[in-house]
Amino acid sequence: MRKLFRLWSILLIGFNCLLIGNDGYRLWLKYDQIDDPAVLKTYRKLIKGYSFSGNSATIAAAEQELRTGLKGLLSREISPVSKLRNGVILLGTWDSDSRLAELRLAEDSAWLGDEGYIIRSVMLDRKRVIVIAAEHDIGVLYGVFHFLRLLQTRQNIDQLDIAESPKIQLRLLNHWDNLDRTVERGYAGFSLWDWHKLPDYIHPYYIDYARANASIGINGTVLNNVNADPLVITPLYLEKVAALADVFRPYGVRVYLSVKFSAPEEIGGLPNADPLDKQVRRWWRDKVAEIYRYVPDFGGFLVKANSEGQPGPQGYGRSHADGANMLAEALAPYGGVVMWRAFVYDADNKEDRSKQAYNEFTPLDGKFHANVLVQVKNGPIDFQPREPFHPLFGAMPETPLMMEFQITQEYLGFSTHLVYLGTLFKEVLNADTYAKGEGSTVAKVIDGLLDQHRLSGIAGVANTGTDRNWTGHLFGQANWYVFGRLAWNHQLIAEVMAEEWIRMTISNNPEEVSIIEEIMLASRENTVNYMTPLGLHHIMGWDHHYGPAPWIKDKHRDDWTSVYYHRADRDGIGFDRTATGSNAVSQYHPPVAEIFASLEKCPEKYLLWFHHLDWDYQMRSGRTLWDELCFRYYQGVEGVREMQANWNSLEGQIDEEQFRHVQSMLRIQLKEAIWWRNACVLYFQTFAQRPIPAELEKPDRSLEYYQNLKFPYAPK
Ligand code: GCW
After folding, report:
1. Domains of the chain by range and CATH?
2. Largest CA-CA distance found in the chain, in angstroms, rounded
3. Residues belonging to the active site
4. What percent of the chain has pLDDT over 70?
């Protein structure tokens, strides 16, 4: 224990040293001095000291955070006090302090659960104090972050009456990090985990990573890629995993691992990995026992099986449920879970790719063990700029379904495009599945309310890396931020989350906030428009997924080409997923199925996802489909120009370093938006055989030029 505390102090010193500069390292936890003298004065009057009770590593972390935060924000040292006086913040678990125990209100603690907390202004012994209290230490830490956020965003803290608890139980980052430190679909440098130097060298940023996650309520992290290297569960790596788990533990961040289904063969020397084979089952049981010896609070496994070449139970004639249940059985005695991914589609299956996961998984509903969650991507294809919600949501009532969002921008301009994903996440969470009538939103499916599941979860594929600012683009941080905030409470509003993040990261000046918020809120729709308007999807560059390539065809897998998805020909464009085509619409509940199937009712944003239409089809705008497609592509580029103009208007007002960084990124974004627009419009024009509407500027390059661009080292 003493050793742990020593390690702890070294780490804390480490993170303090890193808290300098405006290069993005400090994320939204900057704690710079409040620049409005009136606000500063009020806060200083209301906050005079604090009193912590409890002595765990989590409480130590909470105290350190509060101290650092207040010192920065109020620009004065706020010290621990033993006697109550006006302006004291009283922190701890209910039972750690007799004064808190007295204050404990039955109705608070009942529903706040393991991670909840309250923040209240109360009179105690005739003193005005602020209470931050929780059932468990982690709630106190979450409460501290919340309290600091109130100051960081300049809220009124006069009469606090806050009670919070998360709506979703497992709130995880999924790192697609490889053991050689490359990151699959990572655009912010190398993996944060310095495997080679672990377990002995603990990089100070590990702790800042944990702080950042705790500040937004993320409580778990899958350390390695779903395309898993089996070595990660060998002693050599488990020792390293344990070292990371030790650092993250005080911050309530549990460690999970992705495992390769064939591990018993590859590292266990068994002849097969058949989930019904006794030897294989025993191997996993022993392996899990070994893992828990290294990491006593290990969270569980994430599995990609029978998907994109990864091995799985089907290789032995068994089902996903057989595979998941075998692992679940091994993990159950320790309270671990299995997160079994539903991202499956088979190269040899000629069925519409968007239908395959539903077809494979719905028959297995009710067959999974109680500690299995099925992890479903937000849409039925693959993290496209826009997809309708995945039809599995609402279709497996007997199984807890976990959401998988992608925070890293594989299909949204990597880390060079400013695309605020809060609006995308909310669009999906708010979508109504109608599984049990109106109001059966995706959010209610995944938080377990709709079907009364005890387990619930949400995962975001991380966008972090060794770049000094963590995410490559300053605004990539906002996506990490909003993911965590929505994982905690999916009812939060994308606009409000944008504003919070801006205030903590860039500026509290209301005009600047509103300019930046406007940029963020427009950004995703702009990107959809310059990349894949009107329901187009999967028309990006081959393999690396960088830039447009709607011409991709004749590859070894049809469902990895672009032409498979847009189906453009002389007659029209779009994928007919109605009854006359693949009938993917039938996987949705009524009335969603009928809405998507109907040309009158289908939202135009999904039009070409579900329908193949003539180039002259009349759009609601009165334009032909071809003209509308052109207008949307051009509108996307115009949108980026507006974002750029808005950003440029901040010159001299916001921090210079942040300003220049984003300004340069927006230049790249504009260049690439024009590239997307020109390449797509010119390519589709070869089928449509119609002119680009006269009022629109003409592409300045030929289609051949775009088709011949090569990117041998694009990150992937
Ligand atoms: O979108 C595809 C990505 C792969 C990824 C896969 C998955 C980890 O292009 O890089 O592999 O999805 O989600 O499994």
Report:
1. 2-164 (3.30.379.10), 170-492 (3.20.20.80), 506-574+613-716 (3.90.1330.10), 576-611 (no CATH)
2. 81
3. 308, 382, 410
4. 96
